[in-house]
Amino acid sequence: MKIYLNGKIVPQEKALISVFDHGFLYGDGIYETLRVYNGQIFKIKDHLKRFFQSARMTSLNLPMTEAEIENALYKTLQANKLKEAYIRIQITRGYGEIGLDPALCPKPTIVIIPKEFHGHPEEFYQKGVSVAVVNIRRNHPLALNPKIKATNFLNNILAKIESLKKNAYEAIMLTIDGYVAEGTICNIFFVRQGVLITPPTNIGILEGVTRDLVIRLAKSKYLRVMMENSFKKEALYNADECFLTSTTMEIMPVTRVDGKKIGNGKPGATTKWLLKGFREKYVAPYYKK
Ligand code: PLP
User: Fold this and answer.
1) I want to staple 54 with a disulfide (CB 3.0 to 4.6 A). Which of 30, 102, 120, 222 is the partner?
2) How many CB atoms are closer than 10 A to CB 272?
């Protein structure tokens, strides 16, 4: 694999950064994961908008414009001849002496890592996955706002470790107040009596690009039955359907929460309708270009 590192495309073995990089020392950096369908980056403008928001919220001066980042992403894909992939762009505070002052790091480190990817196994979409509500709470927005797509991922990793011990595919984190927030790498929705519900972003979650597309798709059909509302984990136990959303998952059906069967234990009709609609409306156009 060839990696983009500070303006150069280099072989993976040569893509090395200093132990003094503040991304390594402090997890001081931001990133985006983007999906590539048929050689084209999915909803690139939405991802770049969020990337620049993460940069602003961490006072990280991005040394590239949106157009330059887009070019660098495509250059990396082309260097690897990738058409179906995901691609991660990461910018850290950069090389600097030990210490927390961002002024110690005059130049950010920019890395782009691509990977061939054809989607998650079809079986997951047919059968649905299981999730576990974990004890680790999502970072409070006044501590480290989950709106920032930060490379500092220990909150999510601790949640993941807990869910792995429970043999769950994904961990669901609650807010400090006990409301359902999100997964470690995804947003969550559920359906109850025909109403589609997802937590509002102001409770402290990442504003997922897929989440937003699903809301738009649902509103086009469901109109008033799509709601952004806070809810507790018991609402998930009593849900008729549940699913996760992310750039790599698209819409992933959930059929068990904490070992409890959701609905009839199979991916629900609304979930399947949304996944089909998502692929037809948003993904298929990339194969017509
Ligand atoms: N929530 C978290 C914590 C994530 O890390 C991600 C994706 O990486 C998401 C939600 C889903 O966001 P998106 O749909 O933009 O991939």
Assistant:
1) 30
2) 16
- For a mutational test of ligand 1's pocket, the pick from 30, 186, 250, i.e. the residue with the most ligand atoms closer than 8 A to its C-beta, is 186
Please identify, by atom number, the ligand 1 atom nearest to the C-alpha of residue 210. 14
User: What are phi and psi for residue 156, nearest 5 degrees?
Assistant: -70, -35
pLDDT in tens, 185-219: 999 999 999 899 999 999 999 999 999 999 999 98
How many A from CA of 156 to the centre of ligand 1?
11
Q: pLDDT tens, 50-60?
A: 999 999 999 99
Tokens of 221: 């059909």
Confidence (pLDDT) at 224: 56
CA distance 60 to 54: 8
Gap between the Cα atoms of 171 and 159, Å rounded: 6
Q: How far apart are CA 131 and CA 189, in angstroms?
A: 13
Q: What is the pTM for the complete model shown?
A: 0.97
Q: What is the largest CA-CA distance in the chain?
A: 57
